[in-house]
Amino acid sequence: MRPIQTTIAMIALAAAVALIHPGLIGPAMAQTGAIRIPVLVPLTGPLALEGTSQRNGAVMALTDAPVGVRIEYEVLDTGAAPETAVNALERVLARGGVSVIVAPIFGAQMLAMLPIAAERKVPLITISGTAQLTEMGNPYVFRFFPNDSVAKTAHALYVVEALGKKRPAVLFQTTAYGQSGRQHLAANFARLGATVVFEEGLDINLKDFLPALIKAKQANADALVLQLHAAPTALLLRQAASMGLGIPIVAGSAMHQPTTAALLQPAERKGVCAESASSPVSSIDPAVERWVAAYRREFGAEPDDFALTQYDAVRMAIDAAVQGARGPEEMRAALASGNFTGLAMTYKSDGMGNMAHDAIIMCYDDQGRPRIDRRYPRLG
Amino acid sequence: MSAIQLTANGLALGASYALVALGFVLIVNATGAVNFAQGDLAVAGGFLTVALAGVVNLPGVVLLPIAMVAMAGFGVAFAYLAYFPLRHQPPATVFISTIAFGIVLENGANGLFGAAPRLGPPLLPGGPVELSGLILPRQSLAIVAVTCVLIAGLQFVLMHTQFGRRLRATAQDAEMARAVGIPVGAMIAWTFALAIGLAGAAGMLLSNQFFIAPGDGTNLMLKAYIAVTIGGWGRIWGAVAGALIVAFFETILAVLLSQSAAEMFLYLAVLVVLGLRPRGLLGETIGRRA
User: How far apart are CA A299 and CA A307, in angstroms?
Assistant: First the structure.
């Protein structure tokens, strides 16, 4: 066989082997200098709204990478079930060459993915609030959203210290997110000397919140504290306004989302407060304002905190890659030891993978416009 | 105020479930197959009215018949895509086809409208109604009233018109209906049109009172299925009674117990009904279904 034919045959053989064995594609890609960051987020199902924000934030960061850095990414829908997320994770890992993975906001999916990430030694960057994720000693998870021990501390502090309420009612979702928030709220209220006079877990598909609101009122609660996802938060606030609940409502982070607020009339959101990590649409920071304008241009939608913190998370990973972190182990080490000043806040691991330690409380004014009412820095 | 509002909300929710459940019953009677896309078709109706409200400035009560007619037309297309090509296959083939169609609809809505819940137009503009000192939620009352009109209209068409007799003849015995000259295929297509028109109405009614999101179809379908299982397959009033029972569990029983307990008791009730009256509380007129 002549040399040219031998070369062609070798290339063809290598290509065939690479196609048959996806695990070999990764090193080949790594040699080209590309950083592979798959985005696995829920784009359908009950958390599609939050997942879409997460996707948008990640994609903005990936397409906004510094000159000279070649990024490869793909977006996979993790749907509504943990097994769908696990399948998506297995698929991207099978192709190899992954530096870091943007992982779903859905706590139940994250819990299912964590053992695989640890086994395959690939870091996951997420904005899931479920506290348990970083309490399991898994060194491959990095959370860029205040976890419940931060967010729920701010939530409870605002109710008890800023509003002076001592008899809150807590309504939470029966998902991992809701249960985790409820647990931290209960602990914080107990620590602050407040008594939770009524609490109830609500299914994510529930449409009628009036029974729970009536019971909260009957329990003589002086504030209503919510740990609900976006659509249930809006529905509950609407029904609370309609029945004339008459007590302050401090919602979870879902209420800071412009899409949630858009479902309500200004009168229905007037006076409602919510905890969050930041509120990009209320920010007066010029860098955040520029980012908000770019987001609107790109997606034709209002950005929320999920999009902003996920953007920051991916930018930190890209920054680590620029500093020389290439493979997953180098990326994990960089995320674990570095610190990064993003648009929403400064991120640094607490040793367990919690990167975000600031929280805010935002409230809707008489015209139903959001404003930041209080900041709680370095809580965790 | 709370008790009245609770009852009105419960009735409005039950009324919307009833429209979805009625569509279920019509199709299962006519074809022997369960349409698992019925919830997603209701969601499609909700998004259609959201889109219409963004284009034309008309009150919801005017948009409702427009949406129903459009969804009825879509129902015929649905029949020719998801049912007719597979009707001679085992029943499982048809219900898998409807599940697949439902997933296509959900993802289509997600792609076209985004994942965020949307607020549909109100049936009637304005706030609560005051009647003899009682403050009543206007939208809930309007939903109940419109549902009553639609159910009464459906009952009239099925029981007192030649068209309705043909539909019922097709549902009871398609071979015999064909033998006496009834165009069975056309009657089945009309049944899909009616059922999906009703689903469209349910979607519109839900979209203002409870918002509408692409992923809502599965839950709606489940509620309709439970309503029909409790109330009785094959009967209009069974579906309506079943839907009201589901809403009773979700509202009244949720106040007395908790939402989780109410849901648990709802499914226990389904098991009891299946054990004691497998044909549902109001019986059924057909035998086999998917």
Answer: 11
Residues A362 and A196: their CA atoms lie apart, in Å, by 22
Q: How far is B263 from chain A (nearest CA, A)?
A: 9
Interchain contact, B115 vs A200, CB within 8 Å: no
Nearest to A48 among B215, B251, B258 (CB): B215
Contacts of B123 (CB under 8 A, 6+ apart): B59, B60, B61, B64, B139, B142, B143, B146, B205, B208
Predicted pLDDT at A26? 34
pLDDT at residue A354 in the model: 96
Instruction: Give the pair of three-digit tokens for residue A117.
Output: 């990430």
What share of chain B in percent tops pLDDT 90? 62
Rounded Cα–Cα distance for residues B42 and B26 (Å): 15
pLDDT tens digits, one per residue of B110-121: 889 888 889 999
Give the model's pLDDT for residue B1: 56
Structural domains in chain A plus CATH codes: 33-146+286-349 (3.40.50.2300), 148-276+360-376 (3.40.50.2300)
Nearest 5°: phi and psi at A16? Answer: -65, -45
Chain B residue numbers touching A205 (CB-CB < 8 A):
216, 219
CA–CA gap between residue A226 and residue B139 (Å, rounded): 25
Contacting residues of B for A262, CB less than 8 Å apart: 116, 119
Instruction: Identify residues of A whose CB sits under 8 angstroms from chain B CBs.
Output: 43-46, 48-49, 51-52, 80, 174, 200-203, 205-208, 210-212, 214-215, 217, 230-231, 234-235, 239, 242-244, 259, 262-263, 301
Number of neighbours of residue B89 by Cβ within 10 angstroms:
12
Please report residues of A whose CB lies closer than 8 A to that of B5: 210, 242-243
ipTM comes to 0.84
For helices A286-299 and A48-63, the axis angle rounded to 10 degrees is 110
**SS3 (DSSP) at A342:** coil
